[in-house]
């Protein structure tokens, strides 16, 4: 009998280097209808990046890239319906370096508390984007409408419009905001706190649990929900089993961007082996005793396999971790297509809010 698996063509660009997101049969057609209208169905362009240029030039490149991402996210969010029955406010707290941290607090109206808290960390590779962007504003509204108090933290990025603040500025801000939320549970009307983030925000969400364990305040985190985590960081030594970096390269994201982000986040590489910068570097000792995690990754994402690898590290260290692959989606696709894929979006909302309630 013929071994079907042995004769199967490898998926994506492993089987056909010319394949794009627009021609990959795995890609969800509703997602592709949107991307095709925006001209994003072809392979993402790979502009040469010389990491030997000055850090100021690299930061300027990130700022240009940020403009493009913010523009795309604004377009994707503009036709998305927003839920009723949600209020929001902004609290400003003192940061660890004399800076100010804005906390965007969303809550459902007419719901008796206390409620679980979802502490949301935005994506952008730790170097760009904003908590105030429409994709993330809408996401917090939807999570709040699902029955939670949601707090989005505006941390300092490694570059971009909000200034240049390399590691550990961002994670220190996230930690300060998280501890403020914990200290004000009664005022906020919350029971437990689940930390969630996407992409670079998922890096920070995972890293916060490791940091909290190191510093002795892990008890305030009841769980971590990480979507499409960007956690590897060592692009000079990529293991062969992270095949999605080749399989899905250029599918909206180009892997050539990742070393640039890494350089801007940690300019001299002094923190390359620090698990709070790159959670993939965590040892069993770093991970043992962490709270439950959910790690979700997307089939057509270059980052898929590093997220699965981190889930396996957690499991081997004895952490309760659920790993899941969302079929047909690009990087963080579950939160990008509220209007075109409402069922996918609603499922993500239910999963995050349900996880938070289950751990209350």
Automatic annotation (TrEMBL):
Tell me one GO molecular function of this protein.
Answer: hydrolase activity
Q: Which UniProt keywords apply?
A: Hydrolase
Could you tell me which residue ranges the Alpha/beta hydrolase fold-3 domain spans? 120-332
InterPro entries in UniProt: AB_hydrolase_3, AB_hydrolase_fold, GDXG_lipolytic_enzyme
Alphabetized Pfam families for the sequence: Abhydrolase_3
User: Does the record carry Hydrolase as a key word?
Assistant: yes
- Domain of life, source organism: Bacteria
* Database matches in PANTHER family: AB HYDROLASE SUPERFAMILY PROTEIN C4A8.06C, ALPHA_BETA HYDROLASE FOLD-3 DOMAIN-CONTAINING PROTEIN-RELATED
Supply the name of the protein. Acetyl esterase/lipase
């Amino acid at each position: 009998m013929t071994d079907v698996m042995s004769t199967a063509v490898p998926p994506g660009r492993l089987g056909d280097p010319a394949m794009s997101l627009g021609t990959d049969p795995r890609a969800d057609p509703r997602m592709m209808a949107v991307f095709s209208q925006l001209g994003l169905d072809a392979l993402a362009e790979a502009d040469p990046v010389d990491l030997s240029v000055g850090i100021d030039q690299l930061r300027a490149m990130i700022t240009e890239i940020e403009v493009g991402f913010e523009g795309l996210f604004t377009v994707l969010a503009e036709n998305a319906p927003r839920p009723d029955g949600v209020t929001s406010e902004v609290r400003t707290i003192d940061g660890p370096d004399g800076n100010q941290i804005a906390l965007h607090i969303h809550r459902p109206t007419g719901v008796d508390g206390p409620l679980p808290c979802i502490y949301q960390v935005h994506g952008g590779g730790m170097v760009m984007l904003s908590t105030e962007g429409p994709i993330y504003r809408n996401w917090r509204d939807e999570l709040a409408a699902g029955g939670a108090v949601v707090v989005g933290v505006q941390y300092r990025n490694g570059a971009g419009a909000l200034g240049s603040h390399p590691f550990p500025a961002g994670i220190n801000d996230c930690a300060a905001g998280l501890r403020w939320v914990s200290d004000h549970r009664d005022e906020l009307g919350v029971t437990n706190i689940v930390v969630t983030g996407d992409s670079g925000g998922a890096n920070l969400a995972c890293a916060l649990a490791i940091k909290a364990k190191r510093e002795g305040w892990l008890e305030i985190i009841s769980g971590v929900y990480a979507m499409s985590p960007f956690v590897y960081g060592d692009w000079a030594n990529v293991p062969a089993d992270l095949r999605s970096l080749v399989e899905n390269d250029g599918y909206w994201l180009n892997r050539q961007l990742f070393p640039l982000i890494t350089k801007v986040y940690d300019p001299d590489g002094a923190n390359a082996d620090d698990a709070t910068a790159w959670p993939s570097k965590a040892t069993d000792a770093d991970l043992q005793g962490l709270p439950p995690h959910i790690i979700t990754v997307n089939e057509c994402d270059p980052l898929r396999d590093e997220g699965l690898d981190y889930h396996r590290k957690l499991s081997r260290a004895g952490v309760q971790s659920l790993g899941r692959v969302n079929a047909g989606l690009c990087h963080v696709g579950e939160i990008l297509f509220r209007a075109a894929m409402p069922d996918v979006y609603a499922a993500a909302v239910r999963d995050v809010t349900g996880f938070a309630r289950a751990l209350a």
